[in-house]
């Protein structure tokens, strides 16, 4: 089953809740691709020898990988870290995450500056383009194991909003306004 995404409601309740509008307003993979968000469904039980994952990594130049177990038992200052991840920000580079276990939410801004919530579960590989406003939180399960991929040395610097003068944001807006032209075969 493909990843699920929807427009978020305006509630200030616990960010770990789904925050669906009533009625729900789904967002398709095609709509996410128009924002530069890419998605693949892989088999997380074979990630160490997955040919499809290897092909993605080689094609996109992801030569660094590490793992992150995000849960209260394994992360020092867990609530503070989660709060930092949930602060709206951009990165200078793509953010690539492959969910191996558990689940969580990536939120991205659409062209109208509304939040789109993306549920990731085991097997979901998601790529957020450099310069897109986004944030991350867990769902009520409070657990996710993620593979993080990078081109070259990992850089985790987050630039909190506003970042309209940031070169990565400027480039993202330029490409967004000219459409990404991403082939849908990425799905």
Automatic annotation (TrEMBL):
Cellular location of this protein? Answer: Cell membrane; Cytoplasm; Nucleus
Region: Disordered, residue numbers: 1-24
Q: Does the keyword Iron-sulfur apply?
A: no
Catalytic reaction equation(s): 1,2-dihydroxy-5-(methylsulfanyl)pent-1-en-3-one + O2 = 3-(methylsulfanyl)propanoate + CO + formate + 2 H(+); 1,2-dihydroxy-5-(methylsulfanyl)pent-1-en-3-one + O2 = 4-methylsulfanyl-2-oxobutanoate + formate + 2 H(+)
Q: Please name the pathway.
A: Amino-acid biosynthesis; L-methionine biosynthesis via salvage pathway; L-methionine from S-methyl-5-thio-alpha-D-ribose 1-phosphate: step 5/6
Topology versus the membrane: Peripheral membrane protein
Protein name according to UniProt: Acireductone dioxygenase
What's the top EC group for this one? oxidoreductase
Output the Gene3D superfamilies linked to this UniProt entry: Jelly Rolls
Q: Which family does it belong to?
A: Belongs to the acireductone dioxygenase (ARD) family.
Alphabetic keyword roster: Amino-acid biosynthesis, Cytoplasm, Dioxygenase, Iron, Metal-binding, Methionine biosynthesis, Nickel, Nucleus, Oxidoreductase
Q: Which is one GO molecular function term here?
A: nickel cation binding
Instruction: Quote the record's binding site residues for Fe(2+).
Output: 89, 91, 95, 134
Question: What's one GO BP annotation on this UniProt entry?
Answer: L-methionine salvage from methylthioadenosine
Which cofactors are named for this entry? Fe(2+); Ni(2+)
List, alphabetically, the PANTHER family matched.
Answer: ACIREDUCTONE DIOXYGENASE, ACIREDUCTONE DIOXYGENASE 4
Which spans does this entry mark as compositional bias, Basic and acidic residues?
Answer: 13-24
Pfam families of this UniProt entry?
ARD
Give binding positions for Ni(2+). Answer: 89, 91, 95, 134
CDD domains xrefs: cupin_ARD
Taxonomic source organism = Phaseolus vulgaris
What domain of life does the native source organism fall in? Eukaryota
Q: Where does it primarily localize? A: membrane
Among InterPro entries, the record links this protein to: ARD, ARD_euk, RmlC-like_jellyroll, RmlC_Cupin_sf
Q: Name one GO cellular component term.
A: cytoplasm
Q: Cofactor: bound how, per the entry note? A: Binds either 1 Fe or Ni cation per monomer. Iron-binding promotes an acireductone dioxygenase reaction producing 2-keto-4-methylthiobutyrate, while nickel-binding promotes an acireductone dioxygenase reaction producing 3-(methylsulfanyl)propanoate.
Q: What is its EC number?
A: 1.13.11.54, 1.13.11.53
């Amino acid at each position: 089953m493909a990843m699920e995404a929807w427009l978020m409601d305006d509630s200030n309740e616990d960010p770990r809740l789904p925050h669906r509008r009533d009625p729900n307003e789904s967002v398709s993979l095609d709509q996410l691709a128009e924002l530069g968000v890419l998605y693949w469904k892989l088999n997380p039980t074979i990630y160490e020898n997955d040919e499809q994952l290897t092909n993605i990594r080689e094609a996109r130049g992801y030569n660094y990988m590490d793992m992150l177990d995000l849960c209260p038992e394994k992360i020092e200052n867990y609530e503070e870290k989660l709060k930092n991840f949930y602060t709206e920000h951009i990165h200078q580079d793509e953010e690539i995450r492959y969910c191996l276990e558990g689940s969580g939410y990536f939120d991205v801004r659409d062209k109208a500056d509304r939040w789109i919530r993306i549920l990731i579960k085991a097997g979901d590989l998601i790529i957020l383009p450099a310069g897109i406003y986004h944030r991350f939180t867990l769902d009520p399960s409070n657990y996710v194991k993620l593979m993080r991929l990078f081109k070259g040395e990992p850089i985790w610097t987050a630039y909190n909003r506003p970042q309209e003068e940031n070169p990565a944001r400027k480039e993202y807006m330029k490409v967004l306004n000219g459409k990404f032209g991403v082939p849908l075969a990425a799905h």
